[in-house]
Amino acid sequence: MISNSIGNQLSVTGTAQVIVVLKPSTAASMVKPSLGLASAFPVRESRGAMAAPEATMLQLASCFRISETSQASAMATSGPRGLLATAGGKWYEGARSAASHTPAARIFPNLGVMLGSVDQTGLASLQNNNEVKDVMLAPKFSLIRPVERKPAPPTGAAAGNTVTWGVKRLKADKLHASGITGKGIIVGHLDTGIDGSHPALKKAIHAFAEFDLFGFEVSPTPTAHDTGDHGTHTAGTIAGRASGGQAIGVAPEALLASAIVIEGGEVIARILAGMDWAIGQGSRILNMSLGLRGFSDDFLPLTQLLREKGVLPVFAVGNEGAGTSRSPGNYDEALSVGAMDDRDGVADFSSSQRFSRWSVPDMVAPGVDTLSAQPGGGFQLMSGSSMATPHVAGLAALLLEAVPSATVDQLEQAIFDSCQQLTTEPIARQNRGVPDAVAALAALRLATGSAAPAPAAPPAAVIKKATKKKAKKVAKGTAKPASKKAAKPKKPVVKKKVKKKVKKAVKTKVKK
């Protein structure tokens, strides 16, 4: 059966760009990089026998075609100069030429999905193929832009502002004090990029990638950079290191797999490529602040795939206010985040919506006047649900460091269980409320049966050093003498208490 969305697109243009989710057994056979089918499963000039996975992929690829009405065709003919010289441009030129044997589809092996344009015949072939689990229209996502930007106030110790209000509000700083900082956890960060030269982010990058306008990875990998400022800001909130005396990161020792996937070009191809890449980098959490206004279930299978692969999807709900939301941030399968301010109020712009079986967002987090990194160095304030989302992604990283064996469901539920509702806001605007890092860790340890580690004994060298310092003070006569009270033996004190008790008892007895 053809979905209404695909059917409408076919009736208007004759083709539709679709995402094809393959069955797990088929997807498991994909082991090569997502550089397009031409690279992953090359067509052989000879008539020799093919391996089963290769033959299956080529059979599926034959259902796709290059559409002259597609965005890819429009970019190739009227897009930026030099676009055809990119990896994506070369793929397009090959795919539209019958002589090159380049399939007109993309494959993303870590996700187990394909992307391309089909006509009515191709769609029917895909839907009747036993290797295909689902076919849906490719959604057109856009960045959830901040509603406001402001210059940063004075920061650091001199200004008495060493930790952002958002980090404090989630009580993430209390976990930092106990040694939990997100160390070793990789967070997928799909955005406008990241300024790799920023002092707060230099050591926070596990890997960086840029995907061209067709959705192909740029090679050689460029220096980590931001095509705007949104990505640097969200990255700083997740895992920014302290810089200039200012702490901005919820998980200040987590690592980022950061990719440029938005905006411009074939956005869905760029996003799928970024997701596939982030999974390949070992990401346990995926932070995305992008979406399609309203509810569309076209991206739902991808969100479900992330969870199946052990990746927690943390998505912004949107900035259009009450009664609105964005997909995929409004899926029940996503951890949906709205924005709150430092007075415990839900931001007027923060989206919220009730559906028949669930409501969004799942929770709210600091997202108004959020201080974080700015490209070129320094900091700036931004407001939006995109600023709230990385707070929760950072919190998830802290919890995974403490309990690395936690499943996606256990991790999400612990965050849910920790939430406390804002007393002045209706439930419809905040849902569960704001998460508490300390309570979330306790809930996760309880759910997984993992005990808190015993506090480590101070190193011998430290004890020895402390003893030497005390000896020096005594020698100089600067050591504080022991108080007289402390010097007294405890026995007389106990006797004194006993005598008082006896006297009191005697008086009571006489009174009776």
Describe the structure.
Belongs to the peptidase S8 family. InterPro entries: Peptidase_S8/S53_dom, Peptidase_S8/S53_dom_sf, Peptidase_S8/S53_subtilisin, Peptidase_S8_subtilisin-rel. Its EC number is 3.4.21.62. One of its GO terms (molecular function) is serine-type endopeptidase activity. There is one protein chain. With about 500 residues, this protein is of the alpha/beta class. The chain folds into 2 domains: about 5-135, no CATH class; about 140-450, Peptidase S8/S53 domain (Rossmann fold), CATH 3.40.50. Helices cover about 35% and strands about 15% of the residues. It is built from 19 helices and 19 strands. It has helices at about 5-15, 25, 35-40, 50-60, 70-80, 85-95, 120-125, 165-170, 170-175, 230-240, 265-280, 300-310, 385-400, 410-420, 425-430, 435-450, 460-475, 485, 490-510; strands spanning about 15-20, 105-110, 115-120, 130-135, 140-145, 150, 185-190, 205-210, 255-260, 285-290, 290-295, 310-315, 325, 335-340, 355, 360, 365, 370-375, 380-385. The strands form 5 sheets. The chain has a 7-stranded parallel sheet, with helices on both faces. It has a 4-stranded antiparallel sheet with strand order 2-3-1-4, sandwiched between helices. Strand 15 and strand 16 form a beta hairpin. The chain is globular, with a radius of gyration of 29 Å.
